């Protein structure tokens, strides 16, 4: 989706730290994003998104990582080992709920091809796949995501501003009763960057807040025929170039939940809300050696990263809403776009 449809392109800003040059997770040097969008006929509205931490071999040059589970109604793969060992050794793959299995198989095969030592002279590999349910717009039972789609998402990953809205894993996603999907944002945090990419699929219209303003309470609800219940989820992928260990990354990841709450989320019972955070400022060799030799950031210098995590998460969710157009999918289900003109009028009036 064109950058002209992002929140800041309308002359609006959020208070706080400045965004990075692209206002994207790809402002964290080395991080790349790729999509595979799958739209067929009247009922297939799904896809795959890959977040690649760096351009090298992630299995041999792992990055510190952490997982924060805000609410665990989700079907992700590989998160337990990341949480236990504090390392990420594959790209992060996002897709729909019932395609986690095929995505994991594809990711493992991708790593096996590039690392013939896996399972022989080296340990096995821990693939990380996370999901949201796109079944309202997509024939989720049809198994339309194939291994080739995962490989294409990885191979197409680039360092520019990634497409947002109804692309990749976000193709069939809905937030606050409006079409949403993929969104990204970043913040400059002193000498470092914090970038966030979200797969956004949560919330009721009445809960929606933008820039702290209760939009969902003040504007008429867009047409939506689905259940008026909080049954959605969100996956937040957070990257930073600050040299953090896994414990510190877990602390930063928890602050992404504050950005989620600023948009109106209450992390409902049926909501799977996960944060996967990693640092490119440190790399570990397979044998545990740290490369390059790095001094980890002191804990008393970390507050600015907390601020950046909350702010970038909030704006990434807003960008996902602003970028996505209306969509009709399975069984004629239609989801309206965010009423951008009305939202802008409300926000501009508030800001004078």
Distance between the termini: 29 Å
CATH top level class name: Alpha Beta
CATH-defined topology: L-amino peptidase D-ALA esterase/amidase
Main beta-sheet annotation = 8 strands, mixed
Look at the structure and give the mean pLDDT. Answer: 94
Shape: globular
H-E string: EEEHEEHEHEEEEHEHEEEHEEH
Number of helices: 7
| Fourth-tier CATH superfamily name | L-amino peptidase D-ALA esterase/amidase
- Coarse structural class: alpha+beta
**What's the architecture in CATH terms?**
4-Layer Sandwich
Per DSSP E runs of 2 or more residues, the count of β-strands stands at 16
How many domains make up the coordinates?
1
Q: Which blocks of ≥5 consecutive residues have pLDDT under 50? A: none
Helix content: 10-25%
Strand content: 25-35%
Brief characterization of the structure:
The chain has 352 residues and is an alpha+beta fold.
Give a structural overview.
The chain is of the alpha+beta class and 352 residues long. The protein has a single domain, classed as 4-Layer Sandwich (L-amino peptidase D-ALA esterase/amidase). It is 24% helix and 25% strand. Helix 2 (100-114) crosses helix 3 and helix 5 (246-262) packs across helix 6 (303-323). The mean pLDDT is 94.
Relevant terms:
single chain, L-amino peptidase D-ALA esterase/amidase, eight-stranded mixed sheet, four-stranded mixed sheet, 7 helices, 25% strand
Topology:
Elements: E1 32-40, E2 44-52, E3 61-72, H1 79-85, E4 87-88, E5 92-96, H2 100-114, E6 128-132, H3 147-155, E7 174-175, E8 178-179, E9 182-189, E10 192-201, H4 215-218, E11 233-240, H5 246-262, E12 272-279, E13 283-285, E14 290-291, H6 303-323, E15 327-328, E16 334-335, H7 340-350
Parallel strand pairs: 5-6, 11-12
Antiparallel strand pairs: 1-2, 2-5, 3-4, 3-12, 3-13, 7-8, 9-10, 10-11, 13-14, 15-16
């Amino acid at each position: 989706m064109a950058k002209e449809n992002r929140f800041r392109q309308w002359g609006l800003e959020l208070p706080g730290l400045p965004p990075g040059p692209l206002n994207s997770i790809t402002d964290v040097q080395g991080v790349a994003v790729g999509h595979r969008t799958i739209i067929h006929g009247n009922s297939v509205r799904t896809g795959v998104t890959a977040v690649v931490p760096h351009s090298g071999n992630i299995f041999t040059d792992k990055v510190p990582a952490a997982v924060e589970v805000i609410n665990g109604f989700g079907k992700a793969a590989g998160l337990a080992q990341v949480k236990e060992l504090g390392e990420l050794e594959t790209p992060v793959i996002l897709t729909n709920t019932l395609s986690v299995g095929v995505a994991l198989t594809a990711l493992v095969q991708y790593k096996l091809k590039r690392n013939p030592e896996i399972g022989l002279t080296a340990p096995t590999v821990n693939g990380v796949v996370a999901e949201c349910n796109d079944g309202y717009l997509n024939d989720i039972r049809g198994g339309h995501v194939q291994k080739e789609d995962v490989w294409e998402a990885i191979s197409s990953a680039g360092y520019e501003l990634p497409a947002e809205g109804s692309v990749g894993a976000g193709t069939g996603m809905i937030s606050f009763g409006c079409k949403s999907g993929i969104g990204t944002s970043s913040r400059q945090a002193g000498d470092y960057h914090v970038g966030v990419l979200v797969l956004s699929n949560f919330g009721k219209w009445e809960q929606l807040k933008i820039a702290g303003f209760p939009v969902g309470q003040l504007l008429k609800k867009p047409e939506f025929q689905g259940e008026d219940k909080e049954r959605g989820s969100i996956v937040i992928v957070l990257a930073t170039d600050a040299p953090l260990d896994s414990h510190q990354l877990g602390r930063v990841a928890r602050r992404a939940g504050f950005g989620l709450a600023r948009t109106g989320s209450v992390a409902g019972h049926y909501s799977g809300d996960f944060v996967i955070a990693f640092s490119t400022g440190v790399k570990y060799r397979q044998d545990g050696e740290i490369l390059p030799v790095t001094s980890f950031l002191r804990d008393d210098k970390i507050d600015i990263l907390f601020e950046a995590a909350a702010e970038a998460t909030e704006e990434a969710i807003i960008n996902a809403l602003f970028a996505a157009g209306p969509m009709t999918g399975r069984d004629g289900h239609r989801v309206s776009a965010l009423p951008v003109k009305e939202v802008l009028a409300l926000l501009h009036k508030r800001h004078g």
